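Entry 14. Ran structure prediction on the chain below.
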Amino acid sequence: MTQSRDVEARIHAEADAQAAAPDDDALARFPYTRQALDETLRLYPPGWLLTRRSIARSRINDLDLPAGTDVLVSPYLVHRHPRYWRDGKEALSQ
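Output, C-alpha cells:
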C-alpha cells in the first residue's frame, strides 16, 4: 500500500513506458523510480544506528570527545532533521 498515489502512478507510468526487460542497467532508465527508492532509503534506512570510536581527542560543537569515545549516529534521525532535509513529499514532487 502506498502513501502517495501520485508517486505510485509516476513509477507505474515510467515502468510501462519501457519496452526492454529489466537488466543490470535498469535503474538508469528509471530516474523517477530511482529517486523514489533513494528517498525511501533516506527515510527508512536499513541500518538505524551506526557506531564509531574516536581515535584521537576531538571536539564536536561544545562537546569534547576523548580518544576512544564511542559515538552513536542514527541515520534515521539525521535524515529527518528539518535543518537539512525537506519533507519527503516535497522532494519527490519535483
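DSSP finds four helices and four strands in the chain. Will compare against last week's run tomorrow.
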